[in-house]
Amino acid sequence: MNENRFSRREALLTVTGIAGASLLPAAALGKPRTLPIDDLAPASFSFCLNTSTIMGQDMGLLKEIEIAVEAGYDGIEIWIRSMEKFVAEGGSLKDLKNRIDDWGIKIENAIGFAPWIVDNNDQRIAALEQAKKEMDMLAQLGCRRIAAPPAGATNVGGLDLAKAGERFRALLELGVSMDVIPQLEVWGFSKNLHKLSQVLFVAAECGHPQTRILPDVYHLYKGGSDFDGLKLMSGQTVEIFHMNDYPAEPGREEIGDKDRVYPGLGVGPIADVLEDLRNGGGPTVLSLELFNRDYWSQDPLEVAKTGLKSMKDAVVAIG
Q1: Do 193 and 156 contact (CB within 8 A), yes or no?
Q2: What is the pTM of this model?
Q3: How many domains does the chain have?
Q4: CB burial readout 39-67, b (16+ within 10 A) else e
Q5: What is the per-residue pLDDT across 250-273, written as a single tens digit (0 to 9) for each?
Q6: Structural domain includes residue 24
Q7: Domain span at residue 130?
Q8: CB burial class (10 A; 0-12, 13-18, 19+) of residue 102?
Q9: CA 60 from chain center: how many Å?
Q10: CATH assignment at residue 198
Q11: Burial of 218 (0-12, 13-18, 19+ CB in 10 A)
Q12: Within-domain flag for 38
């Protein structure tokens, strides 16, 4: 995290309106509030809030970003559908970008589900058009990454991973042209790309220098990956990592997204994961991604603060 970032946050003592605020949904405009100035993060890591962690409160994109700012995060990971809803309700991406810049927070990544990987050629063509539209919107907000999970190839196995590599290259070349780079994501519940080894194979088959991989503590466990596989990847390959933890029960077969907990509250090898990421050369964005229904029923700011503290505590613990 650089010094300019903190001087900007220190200078911005209150949340203020933006030009063209009338274009934003009225319900989304909150009262000015003092922004916290948090401790400097270790050089290897920055801290990000995936809005899934507080999406159960159904606050809308602008309020979710406000929460991330007030809680003290360096960045935020948004969902495409929230961005599209914001625009559909009259929100201006240009005005939102101005506000994001004023707040000094960065949109690190976006979660989308374009089915780029499927066997059906017509669906893949449509998926690339969908991705192009989403990338254009993200570029307007200054976001330079988008998640690329195996959406559409989840319930039936047997996907040709060599072909998946070719398909990811097509998506990646589109992303390079749009300056929004797809992050090949591990999905532990998928019949395809549920293991880190499969994702590494697709990445290698893709054969592109901009190939990036997006792992996740929960998904590595759910899909049966060996966590030591993270030792094979450099900080250049893993720019962003989904942070969470999982309990001892239910077991791997039964566990679901809703069972994710704050890092350190479960039995996952959090310290080993962080050490491997740090040794990979970094820097790495640690993004808190939870879908815990109990957390969704709580005050979103407190949830965000608790999650940030849990990640920072985990980083401090590895020395």
Answers
A1: no
A2: 0.87
A3: 1
A4: eebbebbbbbbbbbbbbbbebbbbbbbbb
A5: 999 999 999 999 999 999 999 999
A6: no
A7: 47-317
A8: middle
A9: 17
A10: 3.20.20.150
A11: buried
A12: no
Q: Could you tell me the two tokens for 128?
A: 């690339």
Q: Is the distance from CB of 260 to CB of 290 less than 8 angstroms?
A: yes
Assess contact for 264 and 245: CB atoms under 8 A. yes
Q: Is residue 27 situated within a structural domain?
A: no
Residue 32 in domain: no
Rounded CA gap, 310 and 10, in Å?
Answer: 24
From residue 148, give the alpha-carbon distance in Å to each of 45, 182, 211, 258, 266. 22, 6, 11, 21, 27
Kindly report, residue by residue over 190-213, the tens digit of the pLDDT. 999 999 999 999 999 999 999 999
Q: How far apart are CA 93 and CA 97, in angstroms?
A: 6
Rounded to an integer, what distance in angstroms lies between the CA atom of residue 295 and that of residue 297? 5
Q: How far apart are alpha carbons 151 and 56 in whole angstroms?
A: 22
Burial bucket for residue 316 (CB in 10 Å: 0-12, 13-18, 19+): exposed
Cα dihedral 221, 227, 232, 234 sign: positive
**φ/ψ (deg, to 5) at 14:** -135, 155
Task: Give the burial string for 234-270 (b: 16+ CB within 10 Å, else e).
Answer: eeebbbbbbbbbbeeeeeeeebebebbbbbeebebbb
